[in-house]
Design brief:
It is built from 27 helices and nine strands. The protein has 678 residues and is an alpha+beta fold. It starts with 18 loop residues before the first helix and ends in a 5-residue tail after the last helix. Bound molecules: zinc ion.
Amino acid sequence: MSNPLLNPDGLPRFSEIRPEHVQPAIERLLAEGRAQVEQLLAAHEHYTWDNLVAPLEAMDDRISRAWSPVSHMNSVVNNEALRKVYNECLPLLSAYGTELGQHEGLYRAWRQIAAGDEYRRLDTAQRKIVDNALRDFRLSGIELPQQQRDRFKTILQQLSELTSKYSDNVLDATNAWHRQIRDEALLAGLPGSARALARQTAQQRGLEGWVFTLEFPSYYPVMIYAENRALREELYTAYVTRASDFGPNAGQFNNDAIMEQILALRHEAARLLGYHNYAERSLATKMAHSTEQVMSFLNDLAGRTRAAGQQELQAVRDFATAHGCQELQAWDIPYYSERLRQQKYSISQEELKPWFPEQRVLAGLFAIVERLYGLRIMPVDGIDTWHDDVRFFRILDATGTVRGEFYLDLYARQHKRGGAWMDECVSRRRTAGGVQTPVAYLTCNFSPPIGADPALLTHDEVITLFHEFGHGLHHMLTQIDYAGVSGINGVAWDAVELPSQFMENWCWERAALDLVSGHYHTGETLPEELYQRMHRARNFQSALQMLRQLEFALFDFRMHRDYDPARGARIHETLEAVRREVAVLQPPAFNRFENSFTHIFGGGYAAGYYSYKWAEVLSADAFSAFEETGIFNRDTGERFLHSVLEQGGAREPMELFVEFRGREPTIDALLRHSGLAA
Ligand SMILES: [Zn+2]
């Protein structure tokens, strides 16, 4: 049987990939990888880039090029057979990763390269790969004495079980509650789409009337639109007490003890590695270099935002009072905020859609990056893909060199995971046969074209497309020749959103919107009056939103920094302390937001939630260079291209930023864009 996943050249042959190809291919590649490691280690006494690192990279590349199309198809054309083999292969891949990450022979070989003459011969990108490898070996506990090392492994194992149990509890608590409504009068204020969803949910459960759940698309419209205050209070209470000791399912799925254990184990693991606390450990792989730096960054932003936040809250309070609501409660704020927003700006995403037909938006997006970076983007026909909706494009630079290629899969459909993302299909690296062209998947979930009309995008969706395209450019325009630090590989977590958030800025510029918008009947660009309203509405309650993100970030960071074995985690206490300091909104005492904060207790954001704001400072400040020189300024574009987009993870992000901007980042541009500048 010829297995399409074992063909390392060219693009994946999606139409030939069958579920039965997956496991044999992965098993064979992992076995080859294991054998190759032993053979490479045995074949030499003196290790070099060429006799060790290059062949390891080639092997990794074969594995990721086999796995990438499988993982991608599992996300975008999911079916039961594929999901099954996908889930069967995940533990195989993760075991392989752990095994190599803790392989003592490999560690010795890497250390030999780092310590010898070889290191001096390497270029910047190669040295960074060696440095990163040693760092990651160290963070896997490899340098610890045997007894501590065993303990470290046990901790990691327990943490993986506890974080997954935490997420399961949140999921179960979310699913365990619903509210059925038979009296249509209770739905007053809710738009048709929210009612239709509630109706459909009821039907799926064999219930009459309408059913609301704690899933966000069901919950959120009630909070912003439902006129019935008691209904809002009921849903709010159920939502913010999930997996806790409060609320309608108090005590069931309670995450309190799990959170305590997670924090204790993270602290212990960090201490074993020689850090004072887990916050310090988290920064070992990030751009920010000290806990003091992160704390003063967050506190500074909070200090500059708080007064505006108080004013914004007062405006909602006044509005609510004028509309007969005394004593504004947590479950009233989104509702009156939305009404206030409508009254002030009367702008809806629906209203903007006719000006953003998909073809026009794409042509505008391409025109913008072509002007900024001197590129050409052209469609390529006849490429094998996973679905008829998918298109394929090639990016060429001014010299006619192919810089990258991408698949574009824009529409929502059944069996496709929601949301929008960029993922790597092929990474750039130099091989004996020349440079391997980077290839990206760009995936969105926009409404498909209806009848003869083109797909029409909301302005939010236009921003999403620009965002993901920014990640794509980072992946595709890299000039780094080693996969470990080419494109988005090896880029610090708190810097990786720079190129994506950066692209979003063009969606708010008149001159850019003239390229991106065109009414699907008349071709007319976005009318000035509509543009002005859209612009004014942009910063509605931006201080309150900023304070909310800062509250989460400070809570996350302080909790991990201040863990004290003698006193325990003091989780709720820390959250309340943070709220007293930065929040202008005090939620009710039963609010247990922390019990469903999956980003940090169930996912990879532990002591890293600050990254969202951190990267936003970088992207806003980078964009301000274009505000100063012109948003289509070619010189500024070339500098961003050469200093940031092309460099991947080969150098420190701060060094790259300074090279582009001529100085370290400041928060001024972010404050100005958010309407918060003093
Ligand atoms: Zn992103």
